[in-house]
Amino acid sequence: MDRSQKAASVAELNAVFNEVGVVVVTRNLGMSVGQSTALRTKMREAGATYKVAKNSLASLALNDTPYKGLEEYLSGPTGLSWSTDPVAAAKAAVDFAKTNDRIEIVGGSMGGQMLDAEGIKALASMPSLDELRAKLVGLVNAPATKVVQLVNAPASKLARVFGAYAAKDAA
């Protein structure tokens, strides 16, 4: 990698770090190509990205971003994952680490708030942005459904009473 490629890589990572909601640092403990591909696929499905970057270049890219303190986690064979959804990258990384002993969660940051491995695991246990939206819509929709049921209940009871009288008169 020549100097211009390094500068382009640092600029690309810096732009990413200025746009995302969470960055998770993982330690690669000898993953095979197939395992690495499976991790990237899982990240992509969750709406996140996983990249192995040279630690020195990643440290340079962290300058002037909310994730400035992540340099302390960048030692050894590390990988970076990120997403705009504050939960997606953490959830995908933790789920993959549960089934694969070749990756270890080291730490991360969410919007400038430094998180250790336990913090990332706690973040992964939270519902995603889409799940929260669905719950909010359900909560907003529930009172309207109850009102419709209450309005319809007396009419249906009245119809059953009239039906019973009609059946009695017919008999």
UniProtKB/TrEMBL annotation:
Q: Which Pfam families match?
A: Ribosomal_L10 (PF00466)
Q: Which UniProt keywords apply?
A: Ribonucleoprotein, Ribosomal protein, RNA-binding, rRNA-binding
List the InterPro entries: Ribosomal_uL10, Ribosomal_uL10-like_sf, Ribosomal_uL10_bac, Ribosomal_uL10_bac_type, Ribosomal_uL10_CS_bac
An annotated Gene Ontology molecular function: structural constituent of ribosome
Q: Which CDD domains match?
A: Ribosomal_L10
* GO CC field: large ribosomal subunit
Any GO BP: translation
Q: What does this protein do?
A: Forms part of the ribosomal stalk, playing a central role in the interaction of the ribosome with GTP-bound translation factors.
The UniProt subunit note reads as follows: Part of the ribosomal stalk of the 50S ribosomal subunit. The N-terminus interacts with L11 and the large rRNA to form the base of the stalk. The C-terminus forms an elongated spine to which L12 dimers bind in a sequential fashion forming a multimeric L10(L12)X complex.
| Family, as annotated | Belongs to the universal ribosomal protein uL10 family.
Q: Identify the HAMAP family for this entry.
A: Ribosomal_uL10 (MF_00362)
This protein is called what? Answer: Large ribosomal subunit protein uL10
What species is this protein from? Tsuneonella aeria
Q: Which gene encodes it?
A: rplJ
